[in-house]
Amino acid sequence: MTKKEIVKTICDRANHEKLIPKHSLTQLATKEIVQWTFEAIIATLVQEGRIELRNFGVFEVKQRRPRKARNPRTGDPVNVEAKNVVTFQPGKMMEEQVKKSTKIAEVKKKKPRKSKADKAAARSAEPKTAPAPIAEPSANGNGTVPTETASVPAVVSTVTKSAVEPVTSDAPAAT
After folding, report:
1. H-run or E-run covering 118
2. How far apart are alpha carbons 153 and 173 in whole angstroms?
3. What are residue 170's phi and psi, to 5 degrees?
4. Domain segments of the chain: what residues?
5. Does pTM surpass 0.70?
6. pLDDT by residue (tens digit) across 150-161?
7. pLDDT tens digits, residue range 100-134?
8. I need a labelling partner for 31 at 20 to 30 A (CA). Which of 13, 61, 79, 114 fits?
9. What class is the 57-101 domain?
């Protein structure tokens, strides 16, 4: 959900529930209120380092210690300086509602990256095959390219003006 969607949801709900005179809360005014809320949260975190929103959760600034890391490209050791990070601990009400929710958002999992050695091993393990012939119109004009197979049904590509359609036959192709 984006900030724009949050603004629309709040504006629609406020106007629907008649908390204020009908249609007097515009999306522009709601956007300002939402922005002020975010700014207040950020200002409190900067000044005090912690903000607790009952039944929602706790935002807190924590300091990460300096550490040694490794550059993933070169493998060289790198010193990472100490830095402040914002953490969030959800409140009980939020956790309970999320737990009993039947709809779970699907999270796309990233495929693990293969190392260069794994890629090279996979390439060497693949059977080497010749590329398939490109279908070109033949001298007799039927647009077929013969394939060389002994016991497997022949597969011939027919070229038309609109598309290439594979055609199979049970007889071996003539060469």
Report:
1. helix 116-125
2. 8
3. -85, -20
4. 1-48, 57-101
5. no
6. 444 444 444 444
7. 886 766 666 667 777 777 777 777 776 666 666 66
8. 61
9. few secondary structures
